[in-house]
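B., you asked whether I could sanity-check this one before it goes into the benchmark set. Here's the sequence:
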Amino acid sequence: MKKAFTGILASLLLVTTLAGCGTEQAAPQNTASGDTGTKNEAKKGGKLTLYSPNAAEVNNPIIKEFQDRTGIEVQLISGGTGDLLKRVQAEAVSPQGDVFWAGGADSLEAYKKFFEPYKTKENDNLLPEYVDKNGVWTPFAALPMVIMYNKELVKAGEEPKSWNDLLDPKWKGKIAYADPAKSGSSYTQLVTMLTAFGKDDKGWDFVKNFVKNLDGKVLSGSGLVYKGVADKEFAIGITLEEAALRYVEGGAKVGIVYPSEGTSAVPDGAAIIKGAPNMEQAKQFIDFLVGKDVQSLIQKEFKRRSVRKDAEPIQGIVQTKDIKLVNYDFDFAASKKDDNIKHFSKIITGAE
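And here's what the prediction gave me:
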């Protein structure tokens, strides 16, 4: 079953998801015959609408396999985390989506009143440090935040080693960073930096100096960060570990740094939209995401850290226990998200 799952990746990665806020598409269908690992699994059918900020290369193989195994037709709507969460909020009276998949769990928590609590059948197999005690969201993968740099633009030995190094004047205008109002991962990065220097005036003083070094360049989406660094548009960028590792694995001349002050490894998650039109199919999809097959796939193919207890360590990368982490305040990140975004926006616009 696993062999069949991973074997379809090469062809699937040729399928491009139409990216952008509110872009809608029918997920790819499989018309090939043969064993897709569904012989012992009943096909219940039905439909499912997903809202997802994930990259196409992550979405496509997982959605396709879910369709093959269940017979459920998936409609994918892609966009940035912030825009899609606002869409869920706007549709609250008459929900159009079923599952919100990915985006930092702290961002999902901030919108928890729009999600339906669900305890996955795989709950006992998940690492407890990543599980939401209230069951509003289900963890998908643990995502350390890193500094990514281009080896052709950054001389050996001059790589930033810390968050504080990002304030060096030599990096002014050369840092790729996404707008935390639009990107869930960027918001997590903002809170990580605040935590490293103090969630009070000291932390915000650091953020003000960091923004000065951005020199007015704030990107509209997280995907533009790692792409911008790899394409030599920026010397360095703040991004997800798994995104940077995909470029490293692909042979790009980039490197990654785990900041010396500590970073975060907040999971991204999936949540069922309250009042979802296809509730049973939504539950099936949540269970599927944290099942052993999908969790093995994301480790092997995407270098994402599994949230399962029985997951094997990913070879060739720093082990989780060896990454210095800040004491990330999840409740602060979720409950103060609107305030933190407004504060950051004032700094960006020069109002503060």
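One thing to flag: The first strand starts at residue 23 and ends at 26. Otherwise nothing jumped out at me.
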